[in-house]
Amino acid sequence: MAGRIRRKLIEAAQVDAPEKDPVACRLCGRSITPAHLDLHHLVPKSQGGRETVPLHRICHRQIHALLTEKELARDYPTIDDLLAHSDISRFVAWIRSKPEDFSERTFKSQRLRRK
Ligand SMILES: [Zn+2]
Ligand SMILES: [Zn+2]
């Protein structure tokens, strides 16, 4: 079940990705390997939104850890709005300073669980 949803997310993100470039996280700008790819609704589905952007799972989680769906829809419906949030801009500065394998380590347990 989770695997099927994951594949759909990856296919959807690849549609609007430039041909050879890896998918880039709209929040932190680093490239995203398929295992870490999430799609974020800029306006949450529950609030009627349809547009999605690719994000690292860790970046995506951070957004939802800080903001409710109502706040996202009302005050943070674009990436620029999100980056203007002080806690999110601090998170982005922090995650950008991490080595490439940082998110690998974070998600290893989930990958192992699926085996
Ligand atoms: Zn990211
Ligand atoms: Zn989201």
Walkthrough of the structure:
With 115 residues, the chain is mainly alpha-helical. It has one domain (2-114): DNA Binding (I), subunit A, CATH 1.10.30. 53% of the residues lie in helices and 9% in strands. It is built from 6 helices and 2 strands. It has helices at residues 2-15, 57-66, 69-75, 79-84, 86-96, 102-114, and strands spanning 37-41, 52-56. Strands 1-2 form a two-stranded antiparallel ribbon. Helix 2 (57-66) packs antiparallel against helix 5. It is globular. Mean pLDDT is 81; it is low at 104-109. Bound molecules: zinc ion (2 copies). The site of one zinc ion (ZN) has 5 residues, from strand 1 and helix 2.
Topology at a glance:
Layout: H1 2-15, E1 37-41, E2 52-56, H2 57-66, H3 69-75, H4 79-84, H5 86-96, H6 102-114
Antiparallel strand pairs: 1-2
So what's the overall shape?
globular
Strand order of the largest sheet: 1-2
Beta percentage is 5-15%
Count of individual beta strands:
2
Q: What's the main sheet like?
A: 2 strands, antiparallel
Key descriptive features of the protein:
115 residues; DNA Binding (I), subunit A; two-stranded antiparallel sheet; binds zinc ion; 9% strand; mainly alpha
Short characterization:
The chain has 115 residues and is mainly alpha-helical.
